[in-house]
Amino acid sequence: MTGGTGEAADATSATRVTPTPENGIVVVALSGGGDSLALAAATAFEAPRAGWRAAAVIVDHGLQDGSAEVAEAAAAQARELGLDPVTVVRVDVASDDPAGPEAAARAARYAALDAAADDLGADAILLGHTLDDQAETVLLGLARGSGATSLQGMPAESGRYRRPLLGIPRATTRQACVDAGLAIWDDPHNVDARYTRVRVRERVLPVLESELGPGVAEALARTAEQLREDTAALDAFADEVAEDVVELEEAGVSLSVAALAANPAALRQRIIRLVAQSEFHEALSRTHTLEIARLVTDWRGQGAVALPGFTAERRGGRIHLISTRAGELTGQKPPHDH
User: Fold this and answer.
1) Would you state the pLDDT for residue 27?
2) 248 pairs with which residues across the strands?
3) Among 37, 173, 215, 335, which one is least packed by beta carbons within 10 Å?
4) DSSP string, 169-212
5) Residues of the chain with pLDDT under 50
6) What was the pLDDT predicted at 66?
7) Can you give the pLDDT at residue 332?
8) DSSP for 16-65?
9) pTM metric for this prediction
10) How far apart are CA 76 and CA 185, in angstroms?
11) pLDDT score of 98
């Protein structure tokens, strides 16, 4: 940011961790809140120096009175910062989404961002998630008991999405906006205790900081980063081992019992999940994964196990995974060749 303090410089430099091609276009997803506004200012400062064009997209969810005015105010600040083009997109959020209003709004927002980025031919979409957002995500994943996949939080890069502020505390982004004279919009939903994430932010994290000492958010973010590294390594190993484990069959695949048994549980279960996803497009729960694994580790002559989209049965030293969808023949290569 122009002229700013050390904190502002920290927020600005964070954009450098996610380079895009020279002369490319990056889109900032801007809400008008402190995090995305700091990101917009940092991008406006850095983009021309890196040979990028920087645009902004403001998504108006229409869920609050005055949302159109909030969106236009954010757009005006983006234009003053030098972002171009600046686009406001109004979306309709499904009111009957079984996943709830937060998920419905998120789905509508990402669809709008993707469409706008496609129209611009953008190379990357920048999101303003901070270290605090990451810590909240890890705690929510811990509460769900979803394993390493949830505990690793949000990735810094996913497709063309980038989160360059994941290492920056929310307090720093707000201070950067204050230092730059930017008007922050505070979303009333961010203090609405009906939302689980708000209760984590306003109640759970402060209690942890009070009882365990400062630095809890940073520790949770570090945990997420370490788990993401470990998960990437284990997934790569599972993909390699699958080459020796998997054989195609007419309506599915089979896996070598001996090869699965020779690997530790973490790899064995990853291979099972990988095969289920690759061959049957099913994301197995831990319970289903362990049911198949027991055919290897706790074999007592039990029969076939019924699973979503396929069955698993041990015969002749192999676990046979066969589709139960009428007329389906996978005809795919083993997952390591996908």
Assistant:
1) 97
2) 253
3) 215
4) -HHHHHHHHHHHT------GGGG-TTSHHHHIIIIIHHHHHHHH
5) 1-17, 328-338
6) 85
7) 45
8) GGS---TT-EEEEE--SSHHHHHHHHHHHHHHHHHT-EEEEEEEE---ST
9) 0.79
10) 13
11) 75
Cβ atoms 205, 131 nearer than 8 A: no
pLDDT at 146: 66
CA distance 152 to 150: 5
Q: Which residues contact 314 (CB under 8 A, 6 or more apart)?
A: 257, 295, 296, 299, 302, 320
Backbone CA torsion sign across 152, 153, 155, 156: negative
Q: What is the pLDDT of residue 326?
A: 58
d(CA 320, CA 307): 12
Residue 122's pLDDT is: 94
pLDDT digits (tens, 9 = 90+) for 272-305: 999 999 999 999 999 999 999 999 999 999 899 9
- CB of 254 closer than 8 Å to CB of 221: no
Q: Which long-range contacts (CB under 8 A, 24 or more apart) does 191-195 make?
A: 195/102
3-state SS, residue 321: strand
Residue 53 makes CB contacts below 8 A (sequence gap 6+) with: 23, 24, 25, 26, 47, 84
Name the residue with tokens 């027991």.
294
Q: Which residues contact 34 (CB under 8 A, 6 or more apart)?
A: 170, 173, 174, 177, 184, 186
DSSP state of 76: H
Beta strands 25-29; 53-60: pairing state: parallel
DSSP-derived letter for residue 237 is: H
Other Cβ atoms less than 10 A from the Cβ of 199: the count is: 14
Nearest 5°: CA angle at 121, between 120 and 126? 80
Alpha helices by DSSP H, listed for the chain, are 6-13, 34-50, 67-81, 101-120, 131-144, 148-151, 170-180, 196-199, 205-212, 216-245, 257-261, 265-280, 286-297
Neighbour count for residue 191 (Cβ, 10 Å) = 11
Residue 336 is classified by DSSP as G
**Cα distance between residue 219 and residue 131, in whole Å:** 10
